[in-house]
Amino acid sequence: MSKAPVVLRDLVVASLGSVLEVETRDGEVFRWSRGACEMLWHPQTKTLLWFDADAVPIEVDDEKKTARAISSFERFKARDADRVRAERYAVSGPWSSLGAAARVDYHSDKWSEKASYTHTLGRSVGFWRQGNSRGPWLFLLRGGSLMVTPRGLVG
Q: What is the pTM of this model?
């Protein structure tokens, strides 16, 4: 399983859809309602992440980070980027490992078609949560060879 996650502060991310469910290799299942948590891709750290907290939009003057997020969105969705942005989330507290992730289910409009997808994850993808016991929380999947390609999620 991957090492503890890096600190993510100001994020330039690509919106890939909404996360529905994550199952760990131990069989524990975590669920979210469709549309409740937007699944985001952070290309600099090759991390899938989602929050149950409100975000504050921020200005970004790093063209390289913005270009990577736009490129990730366009590869995944096979269309021009319309939902790439920079945001700051107010999540604090300790990181907790939720185990090795086996799969993630998500809903997306990639290729301009709305559908739900299941992605089986590689053995070394870790599932993490940051936050206090009652939230808000940041969840992330990180490690292995996780990446966004024209086929969708890989790794």
A: 0.76
